[in-house]
Design brief:
The protein is α+β, with helices and mostly antiparallel strands. The strands form two sheets. Strands 2-8-7-4-5 form a five-stranded mixed beta sheet, with no helix packed on it. Strand 7 and strand 8 form a beta hairpin. The protein is globular and about 80 Å long. The relative contact order is 0.07.
Length: about 375
Amino acid sequence: MARGPDGQGGGAGFSLADQLFNADSLRDLAQDYAVLPAFDAARFHAEALGGLDGRGLLERLDWIATCVETQLPADFPAMAEALEAALPDPLDPSLKDDDFGRFIHAVPGILAVRHGLEDHPDRALDLLYEATKRFSMEFYIRPFLNRWPNETLARLDLWAGDENYHVRRLVSEGTRPRLPWAANIALDPAVPLRFLDRLHADPTRYVTRSVANHMNDLSKVMPDRVVDRLRDWQAAGRQDVKEMDWITRHALRTAVKRGERGALDLLGYRPGHVAARIEGLPDGLRIGETLQFDVVLSGDEALPVLVDYRLRFARPNGSAEKVFKLKTGSLTPGKPLTLRKKHVLKGNATTYKLHPGPHRIIVQVNGQDVAEAGFDLYA
């Protein structure tokens, strides 16, 4: 489910910001900083909690960092030393995935950028290195890439071989050209490929997922180069075959939706003659109801198929399309393949708004449009 930096999402009344930053989480953070001799944990908790209302997720992070900062040394090297002393234990290094850490531990990253970027970049990068073992510093490495690109890239070269997988993941995630919520970076998007050449062979899914997401970002600006690189990685054989297949599929997911031939060929979905029809489509539906239809495929040769469908939505000033996955399968000559789909036409979707009017379904097989049909949507 998509959520923006305002912390909203998950349905009416849900606030991610409230879930992440509240009296309990701030109490945990206060206990972390209570190890510092001059830090008044009760004062911090009261000040931070009192300023949460009216602030979104990222604004709350900045506010909490400010409340911590007021009780730390003003000199950045001393501030960094205090921040490191208050860090909780590192995240479990024996895990392989889904161990992002807690947002409350973003404070060192915020203060590293706020006070270390200009005058103490080396010390600030040292702090990010330690902090990312507790919470990903992917947002906070990016200002250093913009301000000190050569020095920061040199650090990332070292970190790509670090024993801690959170540090290795930071190298890929922090250099993604389209990292959600994060500031843009001026870095040539081809530069981090040297890191991905190493990290695609990583033994942890947390790292390889980042590599695949990074490559998916790159596929939007250099699709042919991404396909070539993935092919090279497959040929090199440094990654487990199944994991490399997963990386390839995940990295090419957007290219596949666009029907790009190179991506489909690499995944084994070659073009072929496919006959298709859409069955069971109702003439009309209301917003909130479930659209159900069958896609019947047939062909004169054995063919692996990747089937997607596009919904062409009515808009007040035209139309818009969105691609959805249907299924993968195999065609057998003389044996039709029937695929059924149920699609809820949500009236409260967070990523797009439905409007009454004529809509169309376009089915694509291995990147080729093979059938389409229409229906009317009512309020």
